[in-house]
């Protein structure tokens, strides 16, 4: 029918897989787009699928149904060359029941003489003649979509120095309970059942005179690529919340240990380029499990606690070596242990995340690092750095003007990143280094 082709057209590049037979789209794809001067998220769904007997399945798939539930406006695409089909009537019945604004697009009509009046019988509004393949009619379609979208809500003015902190993790690791304990009140629903939080919840708080925005997010069971139905949209909102935060807190269940999903979630934060703090939550359970005998001295208890924390951190760093720069805080949502330290650490990381460093200082550190450990030769050639400067923040980004970027092995680039982080105390924040030929 051409949904994915139209999706690619509106996005502006090839994002969805396109083929000449129906049913190619199995998972949802999404992209942020500009529609008629409006910012929106466009979702490509799998739609209806015909059975081998050519009898149509009587309901929309779970994923497409979730898309209908989550959307603010719907674009119904029909095949102009086939004319009105029973499947079109079935889709029309489903979308009308949502009560949401919609736009009817009649595809594959490159020839402006092809009629569209038959599609009025679907009772979905005025049929718009489009061609996803050639781009014909897309301007009118974009304007119609923009008109169908709800009125934009004026963004709430927030303090310029406000720090947004997103709590991200698997379901039931205690994110909402941590937030409630931080706030000292039941501002967020807490439940033992995983998946209670489906939307990202923002709460503005004052922390010792520092404006914070704490964002409680839905638990991520799996990657957004493999999530199903409403879980997919929950994961999408979680990732969007992460992108508007300065710091992402990876919340782990310390009693369960580090899982593959914890590794994936941490990787999402690192990939997003946010500041990172790791919270080993439910540490009170670990303390109870590993408690020394009742007659142990206080000194013995303190030594045992240090040993347990050290062992946990070694295991953590083994599983998350790419986050060796992220500070670790041990917390308990039940007792409140470590939660103030967690906020203090997140504020410090946010400061480093937006830090700007003078060019002379950057050059001094880079040149000193190269003197201490020279770059390996490529054949008879060696890397030379003529000039280094910081070009951006959030995260701190540096440009090195060199003789040939290909002479720098990725391990040496990582070495320079680590030297910059160590010299300037850039704890908890990614450091980006770009090599440019002079």
Task: Please supply descriptive tags for the structure shown above.
438 residues, alpha/beta, Rossmann fold, GMP Synthetase, Chain A, domain 3, 3 domains, six-stranded mixed β-sheet, globular
Number of helices: 12
Number of strands: 14
Kindly give the count of domains: 3
What does the main sheet amount to?
A: 6 strands, mixed
Helix vs. strand class: alpha/beta
Radius of gyration: 27 Å
| Helix content estimate | 25-40%
Distance between the termini: 50 Å
Uncertain runs with pLDDT below 50, 5 residues or more?
13-27, 48-60
Shape: globular
Q: Under the CATH scheme, which architecture of the largest domain would be assigned?
A: 3-Layer(aba) Sandwich
The main sheet orders its strands as: 7-8-6-9-10-11
Name of the level-1 CATH class of the largest domain: Alpha Beta
| CATH homologous superfamily descriptor of the largest domain | P-loop containing nucleotide triphosphate hydrolases
Under CATH, the topology of the largest domain can be stated as: Rossmann fold
Beta percentage is 15-25%
In N-to-C order, the SSE pattern is HEEHEHEEHEHEEHEHEHHEHHEEHE
């Amino acid at each position: 029918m051409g949904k994915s082709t139209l999706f690619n057209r509106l996005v502006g590049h090839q994002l969805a897989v396109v083929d000449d037979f129906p049913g190619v789209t199995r998972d949802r794809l999404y992209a942020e787009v500009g529609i008629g001067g409006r910012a929106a998220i466009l979702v490509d769904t799998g739609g209806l699928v015909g059975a081998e007997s050519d009898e149509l399945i009587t309901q929309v798939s779970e994923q497409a149904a979730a898309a209908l539930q989550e959307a603010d406006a719907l674009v119904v695409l029909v095949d102009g060359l086939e004319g009105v089909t029973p499947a079109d009537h079935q889709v029309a019945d489903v979308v009308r029941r949502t009560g949401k604004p919609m736009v009817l697009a009649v595809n594959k009509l490159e020839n402006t003489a092809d009629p569209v009046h038959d599609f009025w019988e679907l009772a979905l509004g005025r049929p718009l003649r489009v061609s996803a393949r050639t781009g014909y009619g897309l301007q009118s379609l974009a304007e119609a979509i923009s008109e169908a979208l709800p009125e934009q809500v004026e963004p709430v003015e927030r303090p310029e120095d406000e720090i947004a902190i997103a709590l991200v993790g698997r379901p039931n690791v205690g994110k909402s309970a941590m937030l409630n304990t931080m706030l000292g009140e039941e501002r967020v629903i807490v439940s033992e059942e995983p998946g209670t939080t489906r939307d990202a919840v923002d709460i503005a708080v004052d922390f010792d005179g520092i404006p914070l925005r704490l964002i409680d997010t839905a638990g991520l069971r799996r990657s957004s690529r493999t999530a199903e139905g409403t879980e997919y949209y929950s994961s999408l909102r979680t990732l969007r919340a992460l992108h508007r935060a300065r710091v992402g807190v990876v919340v782990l269940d310390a009693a369960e240990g580090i899982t593959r999903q914890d590794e994936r979630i941490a990787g999402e934060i690192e990939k997003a380029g946010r500041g990172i703090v790791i919270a080993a939550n439910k540490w009170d359970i670990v303390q109870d499990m590993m408690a020394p005998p009742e007659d142990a001295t206080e000194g013995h208890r303190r030594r045992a606690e240090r040993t347990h924390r050290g062992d946990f951190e070694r295991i953590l760093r083994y599983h998350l070596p790419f986050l060796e720069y992220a500070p670790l805080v041990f917390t308990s949502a039940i007792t409140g242990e470590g939660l103030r330290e967690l906020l203090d650490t997140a504020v410090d990381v946010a400061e480093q995340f937006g830090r700007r460093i003078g060019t002379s200082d950057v050059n001094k550190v880079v040149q000193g690092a190269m003197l201490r450990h020279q770059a390996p030769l490529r054949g008879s050639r060696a890397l030379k750095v003529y000039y280094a400067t910081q070009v951006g923040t959030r995260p701190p980004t540096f440009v090195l003007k060199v003789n040939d970027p290909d002479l720098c092995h990725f391990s040496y680039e990582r070495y320079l990143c680590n030297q910059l982080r160590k010299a300037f105390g850039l704890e908890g924040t990614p450091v980006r280094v770009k090599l440019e030929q002079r």
